[in-house]
Specification:
Structural class: alpha+beta
Helix content: 40-55%
Distance between the termini: 80 Å
Number of helices: 6
Strand content: 15-25%
Order of helices and strands: HHHHHEEHEEEE
Strand order of the largest sheet: 1-2
Length: about 190
């Protein structure tokens, strides 16, 4: 089957689709094999966020985000720089200026809602209540579903909603513990 040369508009549409779903743009350009491999890798990234919930570990969050971003960048570059036999001229290098913007848009259109849907939240700490552990302005990620899979343990930090704001508190005692406050100190199970 003879492949028509991809025009600039078609190439930009393919790049935008590849930014949102890596591999989709390759299908528009007639690159079924490359598109299939990229889409399978993309779905693998989605599975890493949910149901595997790998971002609950910081190192894996960074790994999943960078792999996903790299996949988007590759897919967008591959669509913009695609060269076919019927169109041997190289596409304009000015199109490469669109790569970071398209990858950023695609990443935020897909990864961020999927990340939020899996129960992860980025929060900023605006209180001095937990100083030395958390300082005013510290940013962190919380997992709203963590305690569905794990039991609450002593010294865990939990995000609590209080009226119209969220705060972070440390778990001091769990079921079966006895606590007593004396001279501004907490005595847990008779030990102070």
């Amino acid at each position: 089957m003879q492949q028509r040369p991809a025009g600039t508009k078609q190439r930009l549409l393919a790049a935008l689709l590849s930014a949102v779903a890596p591999g989709a743009g390759q299908f528009i350009l007639g690159q079924r094999r490359k598109g299939g491999v990229l889409l399978i890798a993309f779905v693998g990234g989605l599975v890493c966020v949910w149901p595997l919930r790998l971002p609950r570990f910081f190192a894996l969050l960074i790994l999943v985000a960078f792999v996903w971003l790299g996949l988007s960048l590759y897919a967008v570059c591959a669509t913009l720089l695609e060269r076919s036999e019927s169109a041997p001229q190289r596409p304009s290098k000015w199109l490469l200026l669109a790569v970071p913007l398209l990858a950023y848009i695609g990443f935020n259109l897909v990864f961020t809602p999927f990340f939020l849907g899996a129960g992860f939240r980025a929060l900023k700490f605006d209180s001095s209540a937990m100083e030395t552990t958390l300082l005013i302005g510290d940013q962190f990620i919380s997992d709203a579903n963590y305690y569905r899979y794990e039991k609450v343990a002593r010294n865990d930090l939990v995000v609590m909603r209080r009226k119209d704001y969220q705060t972070v508190k440390r778990v001091v005692a769990i079921g079966g513990d006895t606590i007593e406050g004396k001279n501004r100190r907490i005595i847990l199970n008779g030990l102070g």
